[in-house]
């Protein structure tokens, strides 16, 4: 086998690999000899089929396998000896299209190798960690939100008309073409007006009703309604208003605390403070991570594989285009051109991605099976009732696994850097942290 370099320009590499006919024939014979003991053929005992007959019967198929194995072996040996790591899958193609058995095999191989990434003295990196303590006003605000979500309803004054947001208790009977239909009737049904829990247009027609009123609600079932016999049909609901109640936030007391699983109000306040500080901590980490990435981006410069930058720029342009055109789903849209801005952002992302990957590789940072399982379980909760199917889907999908593994790996590398860097804590108010987070969102990358 002969390997000749044809391109050495920046990170681009090209090679011509020649596998001689003799080498191919030897490889084919090896594979046939390996398979011979298990081959059965009419007229011969198992394992006794002559090699000449085996070659005639299976030679073409084995030749293809031998060719692929020879090329793969040559590439593996090349990467081992050269130390090159391809940025993307190498492009491999056979150059002698008129090849026939007995000819040498000529193969062209091209790829972009990953660059040499310089070492960074992480101990010289200086970072600031914003620390926010939950203040009484923050806790009170959170408790007020809990109370509002746990709202009760009190009867309005006699004769009061219902308003949007009120709860009305109704008896109703639904009819289509003058006939009642299954599931279209109920008694003492509590309905919050504006909750959109009924057919579109239903609740709005009950706004302004009083206790004792009989209201005829006219609506059309949606064309895509789940019950096919009702889909797109006009319906009339005869409604009797039995109660009109206005929303009233629950009182902030021990009773409210018990609704949220706490022993008393003091315990609930402690839980709320802990949750708030965990949220503040997450926001603070995001700010600190951005500062770290900015520092690394300033410290390290190296040549980037053009293919990675081009692919990343295209992805950024595509994502931003869809954000600006949210009504367009799928990929049925005009070709999206990348700009210098997209390319600049792509270069930063590729540079930092390669740097963090190299730090993780050199320091043997890996995502454990337990961490992956936990991540899959967390995401599976977004699909109630289909958790098992989601879990199995991820297990069988390597690309999905990589998409989930990448951010976990990055966070572990970032945490490793935080441990080595000089990090000073700075206690600030909630408003200062919010301002820092807003700055991140305005300059998202």
UniProtKB/TrEMBL annotation:
Gene3D superfamilies reported in the protein's UniProt record: 3.10.50.40, Trigger factor ribosome-binding domain, Trigger factor, C-terminal domain
Entry similarity comment: Belongs to the FKBP-type PPIase family. Tig subfamily.
One annotated GO molecular function: peptidyl-prolyl cis-trans isomerase activity
EC number(s) recorded for this UniProt protein: 5.2.1.8
Name of protein: Trigger factor
PPIase FKBP-type domain boundaries: 165-225
Role summary: Involved in protein export. Acts as a chaperone by maintaining the newly synthesized protein in an open conformation. Functions as a peptidyl-prolyl cis-trans isomerase.
Compartments where found: Cytoplasm
One BP term from GO: protein transport
InterPro entries named among the record's database cross-references: PPIase_dom_sf (IPR046357), PPIase_FKBP_dom (IPR001179), Trig_fac (IPR005215), Trigger_fac_C (IPR008880), Trigger_fac_C_sf (IPR037041), Trigger_fac_ribosome-bd_bac (IPR008881), Trigger_fac_ribosome-bd_sf (IPR036611), Trigger_fact/SurA_dom_sf (IPR027304)
UniProt key word Cell inner membrane: no
Stored Pfam families: FKBP_C, Trigger_C, Trigger_N
Cellular-component GO terms for this entry: cytoplasm
Sorted UniProt keywords: Cell cycle, Cell division, Chaperone, Cytoplasm, Isomerase, Rotamase
Keyword Transferase in record: no
Gene source species: Litoreibacter meonggei
Segments for region (Disordered): 80-100
Catalyzed reaction equations: [protein]-peptidylproline (omega=180) = [protein]-peptidylproline (omega=0)
Gene name in the database record: tig
Domain free text: Consists of 3 domains; the N-terminus binds the ribosome, the middle domain has PPIase activity, while the C-terminus has intrinsic chaperone activity on its own.
Domain of life: Bacteria
